[in-house]
Design brief:
CATH topology: TIM Barrel
Largest sheet: 5 strands, parallel
Helix content: 40-55%
Order of helices and strands: EHEHEHEHEHEHEHEHH
Bound molecules: nickel (II) ion
Number of strands: 8
Shape: globular
Number of domains: 1
Length: 254
């Protein structure tokens, strides 16, 4: 059994075959899928799917950094509205993204810190998105880490030094398709990270692993990531499944 800890399978990319994609995931061994939110526009799609598949899909609530702009306070109100009304399994995805645009960097930092405080208030883990922003993201998590905070650095593809800092924070690493890319050095960096710190994710519909690279990603491709990690650590795939599933269950309470 595997758990996909990061999938946007509620997105429009699956409008024609969502049920089939979930079926393929289930048959491939992916028995639970964690759904991170993006912004107020994605909440309904995500919740509809979670209600249709309550034993397969587990929603998170949060505002994605690339959806932070001058109206972010209203967006955060929508996030809080839902947190008060329904069970969620974490706050996500949240973080800082300076890849496309640095215009709203201050707003991104504020929204990130605010949502970390929500995670503490609701006693939930955080799912963190980092893109060209490790130092900025790390500083905030470090300041807010009072021992009560836990979570995952999703789509980790950083350096050994960054990995060490994440371990010191007591956070997990979300490992996805990047680990299978030929030009990636993540497999080398992973050698400095104990396998006990990992969870698996697809980030579907993005970042398909080899041999599906370039195609739409879906949760059934999680097996390719598990296989690559088994190779990197030289352990059976069943052991990778056991460790990462147990970590995901503990983190999200699923
Ligand atoms: Ni995502």
């Amino acid at each position: 059994m595997l758990i996909d800890t990061h999938s946007h399978i509620y997105s429009e990319d699956f409008i024609h075959d969502r049920d089939e994609a979930l079926q393929r995931a289930y048959e491939s061994g992916v028995k639970k899928i964690v759904l991170p939110n993006i912004d107020s526009g994605s909440i309904k799609h995500m919740l509809d799917l979670s209600e249709a598949y309550p034993h397969l899909c587990y929603p998170l609530m949060g505002l994605h950094p690339t959806s932070v702009d001058e109206d972010y306070k209203e967006e955060l109100q929508a996030i809080e509205y839902w947190l008060e009304r329904r069970k969620f399994y974490g706050i996500g995805e949240i973080g800082i993204d300076l890849y496309w645009d640095k215009k709203f960097i201050e707003e991104q930092k504020e929204a990130f810190r605010y949502q970390i405080k929500l995670a503490k208030k609701y006693n939930l883990p955080v799912v963190i998105h980092v893109r060209n922003s490790f130092e900025e993201t790390y500083e905030i998590v470090k300041e807010e880490q009072d021992g009560s905070l836990n979570g995952v650095f999703h789509c980790f593809s950083g350096s050994e030094i960054e990995a060490t800092k994440i371990i010191e924070l007591g956070f997990l690493f979300g490992i996805g398709g990047v680990v299978t890319f030929k030009n990636s050095t993540l497999d080398e960096v992973l050698k400095s990270i104990d396998i006990s710190n990992l969870v698996l994710e697809t980030d579907s519909p993005y970042l398909s692993p080899v041999p599906k690279r370039g195609k739409r990603n879906e949760s059934s491709y999680l097996m390719y990531i598990a296989q690559k990690i088994a190779e990197v650590y030289n352990v059976p795939v069943a052991r990778v499944a056991e460790i990462t599933t147990s970590n995901a269950r503990n983190l999200f309470g699923i």
